[in-house]
Amino acid sequence: MVMNHDKVVVVENYLSANILGARKIWETFLVVLVIYTAWASPFGFGFLKGPGGPLSITDNVVNGFFAIDIILTFFVAYLDKTTYLLVDDRKKIGWKYARSWLIFDVISTIPSELATRIFPKSLQSYGFFNMLRLWRLRRVSTLFSRLEKDRNYNYYWVRCAKFICVTLFAIHCAGCFYYLIAARNHDPEKTWTGAEILGQGLWVRYVTAVYWSITTLTPVGYGDLHPVNAWEMILDIFYMFFHLGLTSYIIGNMTNLVVHGTIRTREFRDTIQAASSFAQRNQLPLRLQDQMLAHLCLKFRTESEGLQQQETLDSLPKAIRSSISHYLFYSLVDKVYLFHGVSNDLLFQLVSEMKAEYFPPKKDVILQKEAPTDFYILVTGAAVIGEAKSGDLIGEIGVLCYRPQLFTVRTKRLSQLLRLNRTTFLNIVEANVGDGTVIMNNLLQHLKDLKDPIMEGALLETENMLARGRMDLPLSLCFAAIRGYGLLLNQLLKQGLDPNESDNNGRSALHIASSKGSENCVLLLLDYGADPNSRDSDGNVPLWEAILNGHEQIAKLLLDKGANLNSGDVGQFACTAAEQNRLDLLKEIARHGGDVTRPNSNGTTALHVAISEDNVDIVKYLLDQGADVDKPDLHG
Known about the structure:
Potassium channel. The protein is mainly alpha-helical. It contains 29 helices and ten strands.
């Protein structure tokens, strides 16, 4: 139980927090190195002819850090996009990394000096190989995506910083590419730079290239088609009108694409801001503030990552929805203790009505003393009550017994739960009365097995409510008879239940009440028309149940209502008495009009059994009753 190991949990949380903190620091450090790479790679491509000097040394140091990160990646757990569970198996981590980014990461860390030796001459350009290191820019994109969703940073300034970085990178790359084209041309006079600029120092050449790059980027265009005569001017007028419309169309569509990709994040930030303002204005406790924000963050995550499972199911026809729910959750619900032994029809109906929901860490699912409206089945995650595991029920005592919840249930980590509404649950069970009895028996047995003082109190209160008939769960007459609940039995009979209804073994409530010696229940059943001569699947009748268990008063009541022992398998009754070496029971059978010499359904008589048991007294008694010593059984 979690509550018995608080120190262990605190240590685990402390270590997890330290590991996550170190990982964030390392990733932030790598982003700084990526920024350096974003400047150095295009610069080397455009302005340098080969490795050397401080820039080459710095490149190799940076490459070393990224090589270390490649090794560390083999030890970092990842989130499975199919199941959305954290995978920490080393083999699976390595295999996933090998199939995704490993090759690109390795190539981008190869030193330039080594590349010039192993690559063919056509690919030995220092700058060309350096451009492969721009693969690392994906880390910057990931960083900005995370910052846009982080409520600790202003969304507006994060977006501005992103646009500035993209613009500066585009200007820098364009300037380097412009200079590369000019520097590689065989005639310097036929380039945009001219021979004078090519002869200047490195700093002057770089600044000049960047200047013309940003000058070209910022205007819409220079108008390269320079008209000379009137017809060219007329054509140019129509072309410029066309260009105006085309540009408007392209810009409008690009704007829609950009806005569509960011509007959800913007709405999320607005919602977070509104929730934070509400919490501060009403001075809510910090724990409640955290729960509010965690819920909103989880909602955004489920929508952005396609996890809105219930919304998807609700949009489908009921037949398809039921089939999907059955495939996803039937095996889990089938293992829940409350539903052991119920019919497959009931399970299928329950699964179809369950709603899958996600709860963030430290979120209250059920509050102590809360009115019972729903109960939950844990699919993935963990909940602190003790500690619930996959397939455990939460809140079922409050729902079934209609009493305030006993505990506060709070999640430990991201958890998926199946929610079932109390009213829906009771409506389904009402159509399956026999299953209601099974469910209640499972609950009572579970409470008894827990051996917990609180649960023992709940068990006692539940049994008292059952005895008084104050339960909404549809129950059978057999359930009331087994437990001797006369008031409950009376209520069920008044509701119109068939007094002769039987369980899976054909035993009616009268069979059970007679065997238990419950005189009140027997009288109620007989008054409502229960058949005193009904047989179960083994041929037993209520009168035999009373005689077998020594309830003489019950036997008298049944005889007064017309019970006849011979309506049952009297031969089997006599065999049972002989097997138990009970001469007194044989005499009771005979006293109540039963023929002790008759064979059972297998042809065996009580005399056969008594002889095999070497019981001389019973043999003498049976012979006195007229038993045939030469009568064979089915085996001869």
